[in-house]
Every structure is written in C-alpha cells, then in structure tokens.
Amino acid sequence: MNVGPDANSRLYLERFLLVLGGLALLTALVLAPLSFLWLYQSGDSGVERAAEAQASGTFALFGSGISQDFIEYKLMLYKAIKPEIVAIGSSRVMQFRGAWFRESFLNMGGVAGNLAVLRSTIDAMLKISRPKAVILGIDFWWFLPQWEKDPHETARLASGTYNYSFANLKKPWEWLLEGKISFRQLGAPILGIFGKGFRADRFGIMAQQTDDGFGPDGSWYYTAEITGMKQAPDYQFQDTLRNIGNGSRAFYHADKGQAGPAQSHVEAFAEIWCRLRSRGIQTFVFMPPLAARTLAAMGQGDYPHLYRLREAFLECGMDVADLTNPALLGSDDCEFVDGFHGGEILYARILRALAERWPALLAYVNMEKIDAIVRDWQGHALAADARLTKRPEIDFLGLGCQKRSRLEGKQ
Q: b/e string for 325-337 if b means 16 or more Cβ within 10 A?
C-alpha cells in the first residue's frame, strides 16, 4: 500500500516532535538537575555561601564564571564585614590587601565603571554601615563625555545575577563545548562522593580551576596570568598600546578643542567626594599608575583629561594624589599585570605613599608589613602565599623581568 505525500509529512512531523519531546524530557530530568547541582557545588551560584565563608575568616576565593558584575557580591561581603576602612573604585583598585591594615578592611574595587555607578554603590554601602575611612581610586577616562554622557544620573545596581536561570543553567554545557571544562570536571558533583570533586574553599569555576578570584578581603588574585597557567591578555602591553593608537576603550582620545576633563564630570565627582566627607568619613583620593610604556605612548594632546585632571580637582578644592607615573613610587613595568593595572607590590607602594602624604591614613596602615612585602617581592606582581598557590610567578608579560621561585629564600 502506497503512502501519500501528506501522510509522509505527518509521519515526519510526528517523529520530529517525538524526538524533540524526548530531548526536552532529557533536559528536564537529567541535564537541568545536573547543571543545578554543578552550579551549586562549584560555587558559581553560591555567592551567599562564599561571602559567609570569607566573612568567617576562611581564606576562600570567589571567582564565578556566570557574571562579571561584582556589585551584588561585594555588597553582600560588605554587609557581613561592616569594615572600618574601604578601598573603592574600578578594577584598578582591586590589589589593596587586607593584611596591610590595622583595622577591618574591605576592597570594594571592581564595582565602579563610571561616576554614576560609583555614586550609587557608595549610597548602597552607607545604607548598610558607615566606614571610618575610604580610599578612592579614580580613572581618568571617567571624565570624558565619550565614556559617560550623564555623570549625574542614578545608576541601577545589578542584583540576582548569580542565580539558576535558564541562561545560567546552560553555562556548564557551553563551557564543555568551548573546552573550558573537561568531562571529568563536568562530573565533579558525582566525583565528590569519592572525595574528588570541587574544593570547599573555592567558589566559582575560575577559583576552582586556576585560583583566580576575590579573597576574603575583597581583593582580586590574577593567579592564572601571573603564574603562566594562561596567556596574559596584554602580553608585552600589545593590547593597551593598540588601544592608545586607535583611541579606543579606556584610551579614548579627547575631542578637538577639549582642554581638560569635562567640567560636568569633575563637578559630579566633587559631589561624591562631599557626600563622603559630610558623613564624617575620611576620604583619600588617588589616580592609579599607568605602566611606563603606556605613559610614553600617550601624547598630552590626546589625553588632556589625564594630564590636567589633578589641576581641575584643585580648582574645586579637592586634594588628589596623582600617582600616574610609577617611577615616582620606585616601581617599573615588571610590577604591572597589564598596561594599566598594577600588581600587588605596586599597590603596597601606593598605600605607603598615601599614608606618607596624609598622616590621618597612617593610623590605619601597618607600615611594617608594607615595607616587608615591597622589600621581599619588588619586581613582582604577586607576593607568595601558600594558601593561594604554590606556583611561582613567571615573566608573564614577556618584558624580560627577573622573577624568582617561591621556594627561594627572601632577597
């Protein structure tokens, strides 16, 4: 008996729907629960557990692959610790370590990509508790209209990003297809039964795999890059120098006729500065260093918003430490992570310079520890810490920097 074209089409459609239904059932009964278990046990969605462990004093890392919007996590940690002193700004503030301070400290770096977000984050912090002092790092590109059109607007802070949404439940399978995790790593929840699963003091795939992430003090560890586990994104500062040449990303060129930072942006920052000081919070503002090769490539004509920024602040009555040139701190390019992010040793130098400049900050800072870390690890981007990794730092930027093994004696 011959089957007509219409019957063949119906049969094909029925089989297609049957297969599709089977796949949906497989996803619902097997893949989704495994993803949920994986995200929970890996700590990628365990932001609450990570903050709780870190606030208890455990040396735990939080490095989630789900979201790079850290505000929710940082505010959760801030609420748990209620620190006396805070460092806040963009990712260029994330290298201040809690061990350098005499009172409770939290690094809120990485939360502010512009002035509006900085203001909203500070407001959210102050609703929780009021610190005694704030160290505030500012980025020169914040003061360009090209970067932020309206610095006076109220930014809506992200929340609920570390969840079990469909988009996040897909992540483990996407990472498997992209080669970011192996089949063995995907099976870690099951292997955990035999004691071969995820590490209990690491939360998130980055922390689990490469020891990248935020420590209990909120500071970031660039472990994978610095130890050579992965290629440095800014090898020999090529990416930074390319952006300077193109006038792109953080290195936008100023518009023709622009003689300095945008006045509206300077005033917006002055309002943030006054907001802190009016609450009785000691406020110490600085401009973070750029690598020497980065500075050498930046012409003053293209970057008046950098070279005239401190002058603009002084005209508004704000004293800001201009630490743009690392040579003023006794540092060089070997202490950088990339063309505009300094490493841990450079930030120890920064803190010492700030404390020497403002005696009020000296009361919070352990200068003996800072001097020791600079003495023992000069020329490095990371000081040895067995709780983090036993891997030694290498010349990860390819700059010809002399690095030493963590197993060697102190220099």
A: ebeebebbbbbbb
Asked whether 128 and 77 are in contact (CB, 8 A), the reply is: no
Pull the structure tokens for residue 110.
């990485």
Task: Find the angle CA(248)-CA(253)-CA(259) to the nearest 5 degrees.
Answer: 160
Phi, psi angles (nearest 5°) of residue 346: -60, -40
pLDDT tens sequence across 164-218: 888 898 898 889 889 888 888 888 877 765 567 899 999 999 999 999 999 999 9
Q: Where are the alpha helices (DSSP H) in 282-334?
A: 292-297, 304-307, 309-315
Question: Phi/psi class of residue 338: alpha, beta or left (left: φ > 0; alpha: ψ in -120 to 50)?
Answer: beta
109 with 92: CB under 8 angstroms?
yes
Token pair recorded at residue 77: 């940690």
Q: Answer for the pair 215, 222: CB distance below 8 angstroms, yes or no.
A: no
pLDDT digits over 299-348, tens only?
889 999 999 999 999 999 999 999 999 999 999 999 999 999 999 999 99
Q: Are 86 and 135 in contact (CB under 8 A)?
A: yes
CA angle 382, 385, 388 (to 5 degrees): 95
**What is the C-alpha separation between 269 and 347, in angstroms, rounded?**
23
CA 131 to each of CA 65, 269, 320: distance values in angstroms, whole numbers, following the listed order: 30, 19, 20
CA-wise closest residue to 331 among 348, 356, 307, 355: 348
DSSP secondary structure string for all residues of 115-156: HHHHHHHHHHHHHH---SEEEEE--GGGG-TTT-S-TTSPPP
**Local confidence band at 266 (pLDDT 50, 70, 90 cut-offs):** very high
DSSP per-residue letters across 325-352: -GGGGT--GGGBSSSS-B-HHHHHHHHH
CA dihedral 141, 138, 59, 43 (to 10 degrees): -40
CA distances from 162 to 69, 88, 94, 166, 278 (A): 9, 22, 21, 12, 34
Q: Which of 291, 383, 296 is nearest to 341 (CA)?
A: 291
The whole-angstrom separation of Cα 392 and Cα 376 is 14
Answer positive or negative: Cα dihedral of 212, 53, 349, 251: positive
Q: Which amino acid is at 145?
A: P
